[in-house]
Amino acid sequence: MKFLPLLWAGLWRKPTRTALTLLSIVVAFILFGILSGIDAGIAHALQSSRLDRLFTDSRFGAPMNISYAGQIARVPGVALVAPRRGLYGYYQDPKNGMGVICTDERFFSLRPEIIITKAQLAALRMTRTGALIDVYLKNKYGWKVGDKIPLQTDTPQVDGNKTWTFDVVGIVDDANYPGQAGWFLGNYEYLDEASASGKGTIDRFLVRIKPPCSSSAM
Predict the structure, then answer these.
(1) With 50 as the cut, is the pLDDT of residue 155 above it?
(2) Is 139 helix (H, G, I), strand (E, B) or coil?
(3) Does residue 81 sit in helix, strand or coil?
(4) Is 169 exposed, middle or buried (0-12, 13-18, 19+ CB in 10 A)?
(5) Phi, psi torsion values for 54, nearest 5 degrees
(6) Which residues pair with 103 in a beta bridge?
């Protein structure tokens, strides 16, 4: 203890050097925390990634014909193909931007991280305007099964109406990101039949390949 005054005096003999030293220590700890977070995020992404799944998009983002699914399915090593088309808009306020993935039950085989029951899948299939939302959207907007969700979009229907209404038939969750994913899933047939344009098109194919190690060669 008797050396503390001497130590204190030595530290402040050159205050600029002392301040810079302390600042460098603080910065080092901050960088360590940031890099640890990045490392944990990358580790989680690798853990939840699926080597047997590919996303197939058009080169310049143009819509693709859904009939391409058959051609892709005939490629050696392809086990399953699921088409999807997005509908983008907002709920009540433009700040509440939202995207609906319109697809069919094949999508859930390629997205096994979505926790869904057979009853929920059947309800979606039997309800043309049906939608599955996840826990995140349920908590954020207070939605529940049976609610009608109107979304304002730039995509006109055959009658010119740009408001698309979905009926919530089930609440799902994401095993990889519980309560955080923001899934809003609807029927492709509803979007395709009611759209004034773009019929028979999709914006992405999800592809399951076998074996997983062959994905780098496709």
Answers:
(1) yes
(2) helix
(3) strand
(4) buried
(5) -125, 150
(6) 187
pTM: 0.74
Tell me the two tokens of residue 106: 């094949």
Hey, is 13 helix, strand or coil? Answer: coil
Give 110's DSSP letter. H
pLDDT tens digit sequence for 68-90: 999 999 999 999 999 999 999 99
Lookup result for tokens 């979606």: 124
| Residue 194, phi-psi category: left (phi > 0), alpha (psi -120 to 50), beta (remainder) | alpha
Sign, Cα dihedral of 211, 216, 217, 218:
positive
Tell me, what amino acid is at 83?
P
Residue 209 has pLDDT above 70, yes or no: yes
Question: Cα-atom radius of gyration of the chain, to the nearest Å?
Answer: 26
For the stretch 86-125, pLDDT in tens is 999 999 999 999 999 999 999 999 999 999 999 999 999 9
